[in-house]
Amino acid sequence: LEKLQRDNRELEVRRVDQENKATTFEHRYLKAQREVTLAQETVDKLQTDLTIKMTQLKRFEEKAKTLHSRLESTEEELLHARQQAGNHSRQYLVVTETSTDEEAQEDGSGTDANLDRSVGSPSAEHMTKEALTTDPDDDGSSPVNGSTDQDDKTVKVSRAKTSKLSRYRISGENTVLEDRMRELMDEVEELQHELSRARDRESMNEEHIARLSSTFDQVFTATTHEALQIPSKLPCIPYPSLDNTDFDNEEDRGVISLIYNRGSRSDPDNYHPGNLPPILSKVMEAIVADLLME
Questions:
Q1: Contacts of 186 (CB under 8 A, 6+ apart)
Q2: What φ, ψ does residue 123 adopt, rounded to 5°?
Q3: Helix (H) or strand (E) holding 14
Q4: pTM of the prediction?
Q5: In angstroms, what CA-CA distances link 220 with 7, 223, 224, 234, 287?
Q6: Which structural domain range is residue 6 located in?
Q7: How buried is residue 198: exposed, middle or buried, by Cβ count under 10 Å (0-12/13-18/19+)?
Q8: 136 CB contacts (<8 Å, ≥6 apart)?
Q9: Which of 56, 178, 243, 280 shows its CA 20 to 30 Å from the CA of 97?
Q10: pLDDT value at position 32?
Q11: Is residue 112 in a domain?
């Protein structure tokens, strides 16, 4: 009877010890589960940020291409406007020179005509004779000469008006073209500034994506290294005899079985990540979470 009581006390002590160990492992399991959840959320957030940055980078690249095409089209339009302005300026100069030459020729022809009339005019006696021989009803005026002078004056006035109108029209077109050229120059400068800002944002996004990729690679490398180092860090706990141990319920027995039913974990040669129990997998994930928190 004393031997049975002593065995019973030993079994009770072992049972309490195993319960304490099971409770400790349960707390560690819950803590590891929380840390793994936090680590998973952090990794998901990093992946989401990386995806968003990649999308923004693509959008900025497309916007930069659009701005570049707009800049090229605006430069072509500006070049075309400059060519048109040059053509109109040359036309204006040609018209001005032509009108000046015509006025000079008209002035010269008028002077020559006056000289010819003065040289070829009859003398006073001849004019007196003509006056005597002409019809008394004639008033002495020449209808042909009067109509010719009137036509010359009309042509001169029309030419002057035409030259003035052409000058006004060309000057107005030049003003419009100059305004358009200024607008195009302002638009080109604005597009250049916007393109430079887009390139700056693109470079910043590339740097941020590079930092995210580097962080993700470091976390993955550290996780792999810690996973390989887990077997050497785990304590060697002897496998208890569950048949000779009393437990209050089947849940305690299941927890202990879950911890010890994988054999010795102190042998690195027999280690494989798939052979770890779920609680050890959670511990490994907890290490990843600690690295991320650091």
A1: none
A2: -75, 175
A3: helix 2-119
A4: 0.35
A5: 51, 5, 6, 21, 12
A6: 2-107+155-293
A7: buried
A8: none
A9: 178
A10: 85
A11: no
